[in-house]
Structures are given as structure tokens and as C-alpha cells.
Amino acid sequence: MTQRSALHNTFTITRVYDAPPSRVFAAFADPKAKAKWFSPPPDWVDVKQSVEFRVGGREHSSARDSSGVMHVFDSIYYDIVPDARIVYAYDMHLNEQRISVSLTTIDLQAEAGGRTKLTFTEQGVYLDGYDDAKAREEGTTWLLGKLGETL
Q1: What's this model's pTM, rounded to 2 decimal places?
Q2: Helices (H), 30-118
């Protein structure tokens, strides 16, 4: 029998973007805008993305890495406040193996000079040693950097 484990962790990442909250929010809400930054490294293939940005809506993203492993992200939106907050839960799979389940809150606050403070908080459970909070935080930091580049 496979040894089972569930490691719980929470991390928070804060970024200030040189764009108003409406523009940062649109980068999450508009599927074309999101595809510009919420995407895998350029050498990954079989990329599929779909976004239904509404409370109760679902999002799916999958791509195969250079070693042939399929990475799958599936989420459901639970709370959306335009230009202010997004709450969703998601799970991640490597091929057919679920590696984590997380709850994420994105908070947007207007800053002086038309800027936005984004606070990204993730509460995750990492399953059976396939993933960990440090790797997830590094990946999320990379994605939020890509978001900044697109803004």
C-alpha cells in the first residue's frame, strides 16, 4: 500500500502593479488577457485552457512538460467582487495523480498613482509527497511576475 500524507500550508504573496484595480481584475476575468500570463513555460506542449469567469464557473488549464508529464489545473470560482476580490478552489494533477487541493483569495486594493496592491493568499493541502508549499509558492511567484509583465 502507498504511504499517504497530507501537508497543510498557507502562503501570501503581495505585489504592487502599475495599473488600476480594474485593469488587474480584467487580467483575471478576460480569458484572452489571462492566457497571456497564466500559461506554462514555452517548451511545454498540448496546452489547453478554458475559463468561465463567474461565481460557480470553472477554469481548466493543462499542458505537457518536456519530460511528457501532464500538469492539470481545475478550479471553481466561489466569490467574485469586480475590481476587488476573487476566491476560488482548485486541484492540481500530474497525469492522473491528484497532488494538491487549494483555496485561493486574491485581494485588490487601489494605491496612489493609479496602482494596485494585489494580495494573493493560498491555503493548500499537498498530497502524498507529490508537491509542497515551497514549490507552489515559487510557481505562483513566477506567474504573478508574468502578470506584471503583461500589465
Answers
A1: 0.91
A2: 31-35
**Which helix (H) or strand (E) segment is 25 a member of?**
helix 21-29
Q: What is the pLDDT of residues 35-47, one digit of tens each?
A: 899 988 888 898 8
What is the total residue count of the chain? 151
Q: Buried b / exposed e across 74-108, counting CB within 10 Å, b at 16+? A: ebebeebeeeeebbbebbbbeeeeebbebebbbbb
Closest residue by Cα to residue 22 from 124, 110, 147, 89: 110
Separation of alpha carbons 59 and 20, rounded Å = 24
Q: What is the largest CA-CA distance in the chain?
A: 58
